[in-house]
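Changelog excerpt

This revision adds worked examples to the README so contributors can see how folded entries look when concatenated. The first example is reproduced verbatim below.
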Amino acid sequence: MTAALLLGLGLVLMAIGMPVAFAIGIAGFTYFFLPETFLPTNIGPQRIVSATQSFPLLAVPLFIFIGHLMNASGITPRLMRLSTLLAGWMSGGLAQASIVLSTLMGGVSGSAVADAAMQSRVLGQGMVQQGYSPGFTGAVLSIGGLVTATIPPSIGLILYGYLGEVSIGRLFIAGVVPGFLLMVALMVTTYFVARRRGYTPVREGLPAGREVLSAARSSLWALLFPVWLLVGIRYGLFTPTEAGAFAVAYALLVGCVIHREMGWREILAAMHASVRDIGMIMLIIMFSGIIGYVVSFERVPQTIAELTLGVFSSHATLLLTLAVLLVLLGMLLEATVVVMLLTPILVPVVKAAGVDPVHFGLLMMTLVTFGGMTPPVGISMYTVCGILRCSFFDYSRELVPFALAVFVVVLGIIFFPDIVLFLPNLLMG
């Protein structure tokens, strides 16, 4: 009960406009001043410090830095050309290309919001000028970032693995199949909407093999990045954290030596943007350490597990209930916050119910990221609509068919766990 009240206090503070990290910190520190609490107050600062003392957590700033480096290294226009060649011949060619680009960029940026913002600036105005409605353009560019949240390296999966003590390597490999299924579902939805509205292709007919080969060759270093990542983790060449360090060196090599489009100015700009993003995330992580301690001390996961095991008769029923909860919370809070607050609570619950935490991790990241693309507080929604100047009503209306496609994939993940677990079980045992 005490933990629930503290979480409620944190949500109220966020609702009135307090920065997320401070809202979480105040709620956590309040516990040590309650009359029935016998713990010394110096535990709070100790938990803040200990929350940062994690080698796996070092992967987060490294992969954030990689995303900014890759965008500055000339990779984005090359991937854009390849995406347009592969999908531009379909109905709604630019929209199809944006979804393919999200899939390819998922192996580079690792951030759904960063991907949506980048594509809105690169593709958004061109799509509107081609006759696409601003609402449809915003919905496509935003929902495409959902693929980015599952394709490795996903920042959310790193945080989930760290907090839930789940193998980050298995999470990375498990994200590949759901990511491609989401891509296919979104492209099929785009095709039918575009056909009905007369959104024409940007190319006539299928591309020649020579064109595709040329575009793939120019994008080769970007395409190889997630391959090196997964192969290195699979064969024990490096841990996910060491993979982040390898990837930084890889991005510098590609940008400075191979493409020769990145100099000191671009590197410093990438570092500046990375520090801003990392500072925000790390502050949330630090203060979440207090909440995590309180939740553990109050035995919240064990209590919830005992209740749910007596109520839910099957894995599917439990996961469907949690799916609704995660979507609702994702609509109100940023995905990182939901992961930080709920992972320590829900992972022990699903483990006790016999659900593989890797399976649940992919489900959780998909749903909380999707929640961030919906009203009323979706960060991706505000980002895209702010850049494209489209109304939230038009955006929300156009999002409906894509939301239905996402829910079909989510139901598949819930009822057929092997969609997620097949690849990590095959490659890592």
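The second example, added in the same revision:
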Amino acid sequence: MSLRTFLYSTPFHAWRLARHAPDDLVSVPADCWPGDADAGRLMLDGRLARFAEAVDLPAADWKTDALNPDMVEHLHGFAWLRDLRELGGDAARVLARDLVAGWIARHGRWDRTLWRADLIGERLANWLAHHDFLAGSADDEFQDALTLSVVLQTRHLSRDLGSAPAGRRRFRAVKGLVLGSAALDDDAMAATAFSGLEMAMAAEVAADGGHRSRAPASHLSVMRDLIEARNALRMTERGAPEALQPTILAMTAALRLWRHGDGGLALFNGATEGNRAEIEAVLAQAEANRKTPPDLPDTGYQRLVAGRSCVIADSGRPEALDGEAHAAPLAFEFSHGKQRIVVNCGSAPGDPRWHDALRASAAHSTLVIDDRNAAEVGADGAVGPRPADVSVDRKDAEGRSLVELSHDGYGETHGLVHHRRLFLEADGTDLRGEDRLVYTGAPGEQARDAAVRFHLHPRVRASLVQGGGTAILAPPSGPGWRLRADVPMALNDSVYFGPDGTLQRTSQIVLTLPLVAVRESGEATVRWSIRREDPK
């Protein structure tokens, strides 16, 4: 036990937090995010849903030991309050109030896990944003207990803010302190929150607006936190950090780059497609009217758009410290209109059994050598040895786009560098690719073969024709597509966790490139194309 942990567990710390506690909250923000009435209705039936998982609501004693960590965070973060608010009615309000009162009675004093800085931040933000819903018609006993708990948690958070780890957890903690200090009108805590917000933005948001995790879902979460913090600061006379709104504007442009025509997110680095209503709300609250950029040079992504077609490609290094980083250099997704065609397998946030498998290179539409990851995925969620050099060259002319990418993730293991070219014709009906492996002369394992994978959206039916040399890709509506390659291809099973982390069965096309002679020849290349089928 560390000295800090020991001090937090003492009666002295509890006394210090409660000393001279104010009786009222000065200001509370309005919640600006949509809820899910169906999820609220499920809660009235005693069940709490999170992605593909649903669990029983906690009893009065709030024992949640049997839940997985993601569900524990969701439950104790209280984001589900907006689902009950969206449902509305006395029954929803009473249930929300009873659950908050039960939590205060059970966990109202410091706890190593549930009083973690980021979890306090999320809980405070949700309690304060739903204060009127919770306390509007409540008795004095509940209102006093709620106010005191807000005071205790905010004061503790102001002392423990530095413990929040990098990433979206840091922003959740800072957001909570911004809202808590505004509600209590406390200058000292507001200064701590102000400083924490400035440092987090400077450390974690790149010049192109991308969050350092390179993860669309984490990026969206951080944007929400910054918008909530900005809205709360506007209610005070202290102002906001000068960089806050420009950071939100830059992050808005980056978020737009990751959206397909259906309005959802591309599946990179732990993302699901996301909630379209939430994404639209974030873009609306950002107060930005910026165009979608063609690339994120610092964060490492490319976007090719022509006609109704869109290609989104990973052109950066996997983030070393982020537990959600995937080993997928040069992976891409392809959509036409609102239909996704080539995808990555996605993420299963509520199911840890799939966590490592979905982070593997083979779960993405990229090239994989000998079923080996292009970056090491550690058991603790971190990324180990990974590409040291990822290069990008892009040319746009007359509506056409060509990107040339490379990474050396297989340089140390096999002495090979992967080069990928993606070309999108001006009318969007012709996507051409080339994957080339170049032998560097470095030592390493002798490679057997490379698999170029094209994971398909579950709504796309695939069939091999012409003796297995061509694949027909048939969406449920709109034009069909023909995938051709100059090497053998196979139609294999795959999985997709796109919409909400729910498993869907799907297919993948796999091109096989023999590599037994690559050291003698110096390189090996596969060329492929995905062209729209003209109606007959």
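Reviewer comment on example two: The mean pLDDT is 93. The two ends are 73 Å apart (CA to CA).
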